[in-house]
Design brief:
heterodimer, A: about 375 residues, Fumarate Reductase Cytochrome B subunit, 2 domains, 2 strands, about 55% helix, B: about 140 residues, mainly alpha, Cytochrome Bc1 Complex, Chain D, domain 2, two-stranded antiparallel ribbon, globular
Chain lengths: ~375, ~140
């Protein structure tokens, strides 16, 4: 008996990371990668994927916050909420080459978790302000101006770069522990197990309470969803809701897509309707009575009256061709990847046929999710 | 005997059809007829043949729209497309029966398109020939 016990020298292991922590960790990694790729490198129509990633991140963070109070020992926040003294001690150890083993997070690693969760929360919150202000979608669309959305977009980006930095430090910490602490941290986050050792002080034991966590997740998740949905159902701030005037749709829509009045400034509409006899190379004269009516309608609904994305970004005219939407810097930048051949195809016709690809063009909203390149224009 | 019978039969069959094709367009054709007579004392009636060559002719007024056929295509029984990508219903009355029935609309488009393509207003005779050609298809 004694002998066989002696020969069995394989060290025993202990489960440190429970299933909840492990699934959370890797699912979060996947969602952050998707969000970062679409956010940093995406094209204008990547928004929907970015949003799905963002919603996934917010649900994962919600779960982790709950699990921090209901998970097993090392998942609980209290086991890795270390005092500043401990953090200082840890840094001194690192500088002097000493190493104290922690089964869960060490004092620096623990604060890294809080920093990552806080950064992710701020990214999600600023993201929904951007979504509301710039795109007039989501729970904050009804209170957020375009200017606010644009400003918060900068902050969203700063936090996104901050997250990249934190992830870098997190990986550096893992590398440090792997090299100097001889800890197999990556495989521990897969299997959940680490070699046990009796000389590591054990934190107070906590039993995982998955049912409590599930109930809390469902309650908070449902409350959040209902709240988000009810706010999202409100009309967006400064978003036109009325259908385009029938006379305008008939007269101007006879030759080309009837551009939503919010796409042009009052000055642009004035400029266009003052020279209908020389309308982009053609004579598009109208009886004076009709023309007067259209000028009045367009000026009453021009971009100055709305707060949508196009009402702002198309308002800056190109001085060389001030009356052409497709000459603006914004338009050019957003369509730079589309070849001229696609515009010339029969399915589109020309650059100004917005509705060929933007199914919501006639509302003036131009949501990135409503872009679909028609079959005949895919090259 | 035989040829006379054929002509008579043709008249019985074709005349009502021709009258039908042009019935809705008659008021507009009549008004251009009066205008054409006022324009030119020697005027002797519209011609679908002249209308056709007018429709197909190339002009130098505009490089973007050198001919009616730029947008309407050279086959008036087919749908055309504006330079801005909108479909234009066929000009042939047989395909689009309400063509040339709304005087205001007809004048609006002759005014615009004659200016764009030829660089001047069209004469009443040109307009009448054009409609006669489109009604004959």
């Amino acid at each position: 008996m004694m002998e066989s016990n002696y020969l069995n020298t394989k060290p025993s292991t202990i489960q440190v990371w429970d299933l909840g922590v492990r699934i959370f960790h890797w699912a979060l990694l996947a969602a952050v990668i998707v969000a970062a790729m679409t956010g940093f490198f995406g094209s204008p129509d990547s928004l929907q994927i970015h949003l799905i990633a963002g919603v996934s991140i917010s649900l994962l963070v919600l779960f982790r916050l709950i699990w921090g109070f209901s998970g097993s020992t090392y998942a609980r926040f209290r086991t890795f909420l270390f005092s500043p003294d401990k953090v200082r001690g840890r840094i001194q150890e690192m500088l002097t080459g000493r190493h104290t083993r922690y089964l869960g997070h060490n004092p620096l690693g623990g604060w890294m978790i809080f920093a990552l969760l806080a950064c992710l929360t701020l990214i999600v919150c600023t993201g929904s302000v951007v979504l509301g202000g710039v795109f007039k979608q989501g729970p904050l669309a009804f209170v957020t101006s375009f200017a606010t959305g644009r400003f918060v977009q900068e902050i969203h980006q700063i936090f996104a770069f901050g997250l990249v930095g934190l992830v870098g430090l997190h990986l550096a910490g893992v590398a440090y522990e792997t090299v100097f602490g001889k800890e197999k941290l990556v495989s521990a986050m897969i299997s959940g197990n680490k070699p046990d050792s009796s000389d590591v002080p054990a934190p107070p034991f906590a039993r995982a309470r998955p049912f409590v966590a599930l109930i809390a997740f469902v309650v908070f998740g449902m409350a959040g969803t209902v709240g988000v949905a009810s706010f999202a159902a409100r009309p967006g701030l400064g978003v036109p809701t009325a259908a385009v005037d029938p006379l305008y749709a008939k007269e101007c829509g006879a030759c080309h897509f009837a551009y939503h009045p919010s796409m042009g400034t009052a000055a642009l509409w004035d400029g266009i309707l003052s020279h209908l006899d020389q309308h982009f190379g053609e004579d598009a004269s109208l009886p004076e009575a009709t023309r007067t009516k259209l000028v009045a309608y367009l000026k009453e609904n021009s971009s100055e009256h709305w707060d949508t994305r196009v009402s702002h970004v198309l308002a800056t005219a190109n001085p060389k061709e001030p009356l052409r939407f497709t000459a603006t810097r914004f338009w050019t930048r957003m369509h730079r990847e589309i070849p001229d051949k696609a515009f010339a195809s029969k399915a589109v016709g020309f650059k100004g046929a917005c509705n060929a690809c933007h199914s919501d063009a006639k509302t003036g909203l131009f949501a990135p999710q409503n872009i679909e390149i028609p079959e005949g224009a895919r090259l | 005997m035989k040829s006379r019978q054929f002509i008579a039969l043709s008249c019985i069959v074709l005349l009502p059809a021709m009258a039908y094709a042009g019935a809705a367009q008659k008021p507009i054709i009549d008004s251009y007829l009066a205008a054409a007579k006022a324009e030119n004392a020697a005027f002797s009636g519209f011609s679908a043949e002249r209308g056709k060559s007018f429709f197909l002719a190339k002009h130098d007024a505009s490089s973007e729209t050198p001919s009616c056929t730029t947008c309407h295509t050279s086959d008036p029984t087919k749908a055309g497309q504006t330079r801005a990508g909108k479909d234009v219903a066929p000009m042939a009355v047989s395909k689009t029966p309400d063509r040339f029935t709304d005087a205001e609309k007809v004048e609006k488009w002759f005014t615009r398109n004659c200016q764009s393509v030829i660089g001047r207003a069209c004469t009443a005779q040109e307009k009448g020939d054009f409609i006669t050609f489109m009604a004959s298809l």
